[in-house]
Design goal:
Elements (H helix, E strand, L loop, with lengths): L1 H17 L23 H7 L1 H6 L1 E5 L10 E2 L2 E2 L5 H4 L4 H9 L8 H10 L4 E7 L16 H4 L6 H12 L2 E7 L30 H20 L3 E5 L6 H14 L4 E2 L11 E4 L11 E5 L17 H13 L3 E6 L9 H17 L17 E7 L4 E7 L7 E4 L5 E6 L2 E5 L2 E4 L2 E5 L10 E7 L3
Parallel strand pairs: 1-4, 1-10, 4-5, 5-6, 6-7, 8-9, 9-10
Antiparallel strand pairs: 2-3, 11-12, 12-18, 13-17, 14-15, 14-18, 16-17
Helix pairs in contact: 6-8, 6-12, 9-10, 11-12
The chain binds ligand H79.
The site of ligand H79 has 15 residues, from α1.
């Protein structure tokens, strides 16, 4: 009974640690929902984001030492890429994983091809996650993949080159305010820092970690690989001065480099939602990042895969709200993207092959909630195009639109030669469609209309 009471008492606290009351995941970004405050004009930011806003769909890759045994350590389930903290693994033991890290099956061209075949236009790889291990050549810090593993290869370099060859943009993820390998990286009340190796939180000095590790490594990443995006995570205790300094450092080296909001303190080019799609979109440029199963890093017993249906619906939902979708894969310790992930992504790619026009380069829906699916839009010189992605196909052979539009031409994206009949009625327009849904995931009706 005592234990039940204790659990009941602390359960809300535990829940609160992961999900804020507003539904965002607590990644230590205390300004996650705030309006971004840049000293650059919206036009300058929009220009930097030009390719990114067209791209709409990217691949997130979480790959690091935690993948070696699929988030298990000494037979214990470390639950996620947070394995080191979840199991409180001492640094001296965690480092031993590096001694055996030899992903002999890694092939950068194959990974990029998986992304490309899925219809993804960019890729973001974890260059350093919370465990502090650099997956790139880092002359400033020995705890990196070239110096500390028998593999001695540089996946950031190889993926940069493979992306260039296959026409994808390449970016790097960098855990900013969490680093469990650095003795000075602290956190609020020690909740998220390494207090098992370095228990004296009050003696830690974030600025020392910032000077010693963050600034040199970000400089290395930009000068060595010229990433198109730096995707920061978990700003935690970074000060406004430090966030500002970091942004200046990045833009001095490369003014075209996109930086997300988790550089901290309301700065950065675009907002991030983790594992969530905001109900009404966002007023600023934004991106949802999401896992294919339950963890970001490869977890060997997690088979809770999302269906292709749900992935396409998420992508279209996000596009209809003007956002980007960064969908994650977690390759194994051998360097293989799990086959189920590859299969699901292939299905999404097949759908995009036919219907990509409804996603890439589109803007958000001009309408409110639509019972049958989602709408995206493109504005032409004399007309506008609406893409109606129908998730729930009407059974009566008619798609009723309850808004007034003057249709110039209507067709299915899967059969553009065949014009669909349309009829204006009291509440809007009725479009005659096939009785059977041509595509079980979603069928897109393309409408060229007079400017709305
Ligand atoms: O990289 C992926 C995640 O590992 C990272 N962000 C994405 C992109 C992430 N870091 N933290 N979080 C997501 C949410 C953090 C939840 C925590 Fe906790 C709250 C960590 C510590 C307190 C959950 C609850 C884990 C332990 C207690």
């Amino acid at each position: 009974m005592k234990y039940v009471l204790i659990i009941l008492l602390f359960f809300p606290l535990w829940l609160n640690a992961q999900v804020n009351l507003d539904g965002t995941i607590d990644t230590g970004d205390k300004f996650a929902n705030a309006k971004l405050e840049s000293n650059e004009s919206p036009e300058v930011i929009a220009k930097r984001l030009e390719w990114w806003s067209e791209a709409r769909f990217g691949m997130f890759i979480h790959w690091g030492l935690y993948a070696q045994d699929g988030c298990f350590w000494k037979g214990k389930d470390g639950r996620s890429e947070h394995m080191m903290r979840n199991l409180q693994i001492p640094i001296s033991d965690y480092e031993k994983i590096a001694d055996e890290f030899k992903p002999t099956c890694f092939n950068a061209d194959e990974w990029v091809k998986v992304a490309k075949d899925a219809g993804m236009k960019y890729m973001v790889l974890t260059s350093k996650h919370h465990d502090g291990f650099a997956m790139f050549n880092s002359p400033s810090n020995n705890y990196n993949i070239l110096t500390s593993t028998p593999w001695k290869r540089d996946p950031v370099k190889e993926l940069t080159e493979a992306c260039k060859k296959q026409g994808l943009k390449f970016g790097v993820y960098y855990s900013l305010g969490r680093d469990w390998h650095d003795p000075d990286c602290n956190s609020v009340k020690g909740w998220r820092s390494n207090v098992w190796d370095f228990p004296e939180e009050e003696k830690k000095d974030f600025s020392k970690y910032f000077e010693r590790k963050v600034k040199p490594q970000i400089t290395e990443l930009i000068t060595q690989y010229h990433p198109a995006i730096i995707w920061f995570d978990t700003p935690e205790l970074i000060t406004k001065e430090e966030s500002t300094e970091l942004l200046s450092l990045i833009h001095e080296l490369d003014p075209t480099c996109i930086v997300n909001q988790r550089v901290g303190n309301k700065l950065g080019d675009y907002a991030v939602r983790e594992q969530k799609i905001p109900a009404g979109g966002e007023p600023r440029p934004w991106e949802t990042c999401m896992t294919l199963n339950g963890a970001w890093g490869y977890h060997k017993t997690d088979n809770n895969w999302k269906s292709a249906d749900s992935l396409v619906h998420s992508l279209v939902d996000i596009a209809s709200k003007g956002g980007n979708f960064l969908l994650n894969v977690g390759p194994t310790g051998k360097g293989i993207i799990p086959q189920t992930s590859v299969n699901r992504l292939k299905e999404v790619g097949e759908w995009l092959n036919v219907n990509g026009e409804a996603v890439y380069g589109t803007s958000s829906s001009p309408f409110g909630k639509l019972a049958w699916g989602r709408c995206t839009k493109k504005v032409g010189e004399d007309d506008e195009t609406l893409y109606l992605s129908v998730f729930y196909w009407p059974k009566n052979g008619k798609l009723q639109l309850d808004f007034p539009v003057e249709i110039i031409r209507a067709c299915l994206l899967s059969d553009t030669d065949k014009e669909l009949k349309t009829e204006t009625n009291q509440s809007g327009v009725s479009i005659t469609i096939p009785i059977q849904a041509p595509n079980e995931i979603a069928t897109v009706v393309k409408l060229v209309v007079k400017p709305l």
